[in-house]
Design goal:
This protein is mostly helical and 137 residues long. Helices cover 48% and strands 10% of the residues. The chain has six helices and two strands, in the order H-H-E-E-H-H-H-H. A two-stranded antiparallel ribbon has the order 1-2. A hairpin with a 5-residue loop joins strand 1 and strand 2.
């Protein structure tokens, strides 16, 4: 399994080849269809991520080996695409891997030019929730 940084770097390179922020934005919308299905039973109020511009549901679990598993969904296609990218990076990672990682995908792509401040804050809240859950016993 590639390191989180290598997965992130590969995503950044893929997105950079798409050109400007609008091209990258469109690609995220296309990738939203690849986000694994989250069951409707998990889409409850307690699973909503605070501070997101759109509705974002996340169910994060840890297996017996301490690896993180994420089920996520959003009512916004663009965020579903972001959740897909986050899943590629964070899924099946250990606490130590997550704590040593810095999520910079948005900032290191042209998406930072087209995402509003509130959308960037929402993405930060999503990754912060993953980190917090990873640290919990």
């Amino acid at each position: 399994m590639q390191s989180m940084e290598l997965v992130q770097q590969s995503l950044i390179e893929d997105f950079s080849s798409l050109g400007d922020g609008l091209g990258q934005y469109s690609y995220l919308i296309e990738r939203s269809a690849s986000l694994p299905h989250m069951s409707d039973e998990l889409k409850m109020q307690s699973m909503l991520v605070d501070g997101c511009q759109s509705n974002v549901w996340m169910h994060i679990t840890k297996d017996d080996g301490g690896r993180i598993h994420i089920a996520a969904d959003s009512d916004a296609f663009i965020i579903r695409g972001v959740l897909y990218a986050i899943g590629l990076i964070y899924e099946n990672r250990t606490v130590s891997e997550i704590e040593a990682f810095s999520f910079e995908f948005i900032e290191r792509t042209a998406l930072c030019d087209v995402f509003s401040d509130s959308r960037r804050i929402g993405v930060s809240n999503i990754t912060n929730l993953i980190q917090k859950t990873a640290r919990e016993e």
